[in-house]
Amino acid sequence: MKILANDGISSAGIKKLEEAGFTVVTEHVAQDQLIETINKENYVALLVRSATTVRKDLIDACPELKFIGRGGVGMDNIDVAYAREKGLTVENTPGASSQSVAELTMGTMYALARMTYDSYQNMPKTGNEDFKTLKKQYSKGTELRGKTLLVYGFGRIGQTLASYALGAGMKVVGLSLYKEEVEIPIQIEGIGEVVAKIETTTNADEAISQADFISMNVPKQDGNKAVIGKAEFEKMKDGVRLVNVARGGVIDEDDLLEALNNGKVAAAALDVFENEPSPRIDLLSHPRIACTPHIGGQTAEAQSRIGTELADKIIATLK
């Protein structure tokens, strides 16, 4: 049985699949040639990341396809309900990248707090001549310890982030659809596991007003509706800092720019954008936005876990 990993798969995932008797092809096929290739090569499984879309037309046109796998969390590039209605198995890897996304979020929060993202750009340009000026410019940072972090969406990634933030001495507010007590394990080398308990809240307005830092960890909304817009920015503390590692569009980009320019938001970090892979220049060039190119789950460890998790699900389904 042949599998097309159209957006790639880790060597660990390939090894596990090949040992189970599958043939894995990783050569990327252009979207407009995908249907023809799947049928011609008799692929039974298609694995994608975010670059390839799997819509109704492909599902209908490829009757031998049995499995669609998404390496990552969000499945907005797949017509999931329709595929399952047609009898296909559709799986993602929600837990595989949680650690990597949480670590990127912590790193960007430190960068926003100390403005290092901007310093890294300006020191090579003018540090030799304007050292004292830059030192004064970047001497207005803040500490994370004692600050309140609102984790907007308290699923796997949000809870993993909470463990790091609690370890850094932050107060964590978990915003969820349901009120519940969540146990957060904190791993401390040489000591073991310490468990903290967080009572989630469903009151977005109250949670937003408390936060010094906000991390967006929610899926893409129906109609790409923004979760954070002008009304939400008005409820925030002055000088709040935001991180979006979820999906482009969950923060209204126009309203974010306005909030940055009027001082409501001190700084923001964006790993995702509405118009990927061609994000707006005014976002990329803004002096108080730290940008990364959608790399939340792009670590060697996460990619290996994604590959082996997909392999396990394919083997369980097709073997």
Automatic annotation (TrEMBL):
Residues 107-296 form the D-isomer specific 2-hydroxyacid dehydrogenase NAD-binding domain. Keywords: NAD, Oxidoreductase. It comes from the Bacteria. Residues 7-318 form the D-isomer specific 2-hydroxyacid dehydrogenase catalytic domain. GO terms for molecular function: NAD binding; oxidoreductase activity, acting on the CH-OH group of donors, NAD or NADP as acceptor. Pfam families: 2-Hacid_dh, 2-Hacid_dh_C. Belongs to the D-isomer specific 2-hydroxyacid dehydrogenase family. This is 3-phosphoglycerate dehydrogenase.
